[in-house]
């Protein structure tokens, strides 16, 4: 960084005063000030990401807008954040019996998940070790995997079995060319993977979830059935959508229908190491015939769990839903919504449950469309030359502040 004008050496100031006309001196001083300012800005752009968000929300500023708009940052996010964290990839119902498998994309990486012959859930990079063809396609049941390019075959445990027309290749051992494994684990009915495979130490899935399993153990998520899936492509950065989810501050303005259902005065956000919980009590002074959220004897609130970086689990009194937020580009995001509910055995109860589920999904669709409109408007605002960083509401945006601190921590650790 250049020295401020006020501390330039005396001899240089004297030489400027004696050898240059006043107009030239003024121009040179202006140029020096510009260099000083540029250097200062450059140093700020290179500040450690972990120090970017102050621990104290009272004085902290939000993430700079460039991290929402510049494409160059997304590649690093995939490496530093998505590859190192547990990612929801599917459900146990997709791999119910040995040999059943499905393929997926996680942060741009092709993955295959399978239940092996011993009943274990395994995951691999879906990349043949020959010339990077797909080891598996789609979903189904198979005794082994056969690459769709040159026919190399692999066991359900990932071992290389067959290499057609590969005689004569020297210094080649099949045991060295199995499918590359991916860490996989299960919570309730959900399958998670982590791509870094222990290259950087990290918590197990249960450690990552902390006390979420004990908080929801009485709900019976593992016994719920999938009732609906909807995908939405939104023209905003993935963090815009997560920011929006993590605070109820906007509910009175953006979601009038939701605001009528919830007791906003008692809405609160509790942060933990890797997750946050929004506790949203349901209003009690509403005619039950008019309400969309119907409390039960055991639950009179909605619980909105967020797991860093991109998974939401919403626990309502009569259903559960997941929202998976997948970045497609700096300004484009895929959100995957799945709803789950307990099924009823009697036809009459099943009919009533189906009716309630339709109401739930319709109301969620209304809220989602409201969120899409505001998130896309915010993305546009983030691109304005008038905006760089904002401030947090101490009362209402501690969840956003918590997310930004985690993002800065992971993004800055390469």
Q: Can you describe what's shown?
A:
This protein has 414 residues and is α+β, with helices and mostly antiparallel strands. It has 2 domains: 86-205, Rieske [2Fe-2S] iron-sulphur domain (Rieske Iron-sulfur Protein, 3-layer Sandwich), CATH 2.102.10; 219-411, Alpha-Beta Complex (Naphthalene 1,2-dioxygenase Alpha Subunit, Chain A, domain 1). The chain has helices at residues 10-19, 22-45, 66-69, 72-80, 205-209, 212-216, 238-245, 251-254, 256-261, 347-382, 398-411, and strands at 87-91, 100-106, 109-115, 121-125, 139-141, 145-146, 153-154, 160-162, 181-187, 190-194, 225-234, 268-271, 275-281, 301-307, 311-316, 319-329, 332-341. The strands form 3 sheets. The chain has a 7-stranded antiparallel beta sheet with strand order 1-10-9-4-3-2-5, with no helix packed on it. A hairpin with a 6-residue loop joins strand 6 (145-146) and strand 7. The protein is globular, with a radius of gyration of 27 Å. The two termini are 26 Å apart. The relative contact order is 0.13.
User: What is the name of the CATH architecture of the largest domain?
Assistant: Alpha-Beta Complex
CATH H-level name of the largest domain... which superfamily?
A: Naphthalene 1,2-dioxygenase Alpha Subunit, Chain A, domain 1
CA radius of gyration is: 27 Å
Low-confidence blocks of residues: 1-18, 34-50
The shape, in one word, is: globular
Query: Main sheet: which strands, in order across?
Result: 1-10-9-4-3-2-5
CATH third-tier fold name of the largest domain: Naphthalene 1,2-dioxygenase Alpha Subunit, Chain A, domain 1
Number of domains: 2
Tally the helices: what do you get? 11
